[in-house]
């Protein structure tokens, strides 16, 4: 429903999963910086679009993403 915290936890989990996968594949030896990638831009757009019906959650997620860089 309108659980902003749950949305933020889900995004954090997604980022950790991507980082773990990259480490396991030997692609990185430190946490991933996804900010400049096309894949992250596309994923971010889809997340924001999916949250459109939930303005408070959308705003919270966008704020958290902006704070994270």
Describe the structure.
The protein has helices at 4-24, 38-50, 55-68. Helix 1 (4-24) crosses helix 3 (55-68). By secondary structure, the chain is an all-alpha fold. The relative contact order is 0.17. The chain starts with a helix and ends with a helix.
Features:
69 residues, mainly alpha, 3 helices, 70% helix, elongated
* Structure classification: mainly alpha
Q: Unreliable stretches, pLDDT < 50, 5 or more residues? A: none
* Measured distance between first and last alpha carbons: 27 Å
Discrete helix count: 3
Strand/helix succession = HHH
Biggest sheet architecture: none
Could you tell me the mean pLDDT? 81
Strand segment count: 0
What share of residues is helical? 55-70%
- CA-based gyration radius: 13 Å
Global geometry? elongated
Strand content: under 5%
Question: Short summary of the structure?
Answer:
The chain is mostly helical and 69 residues long.
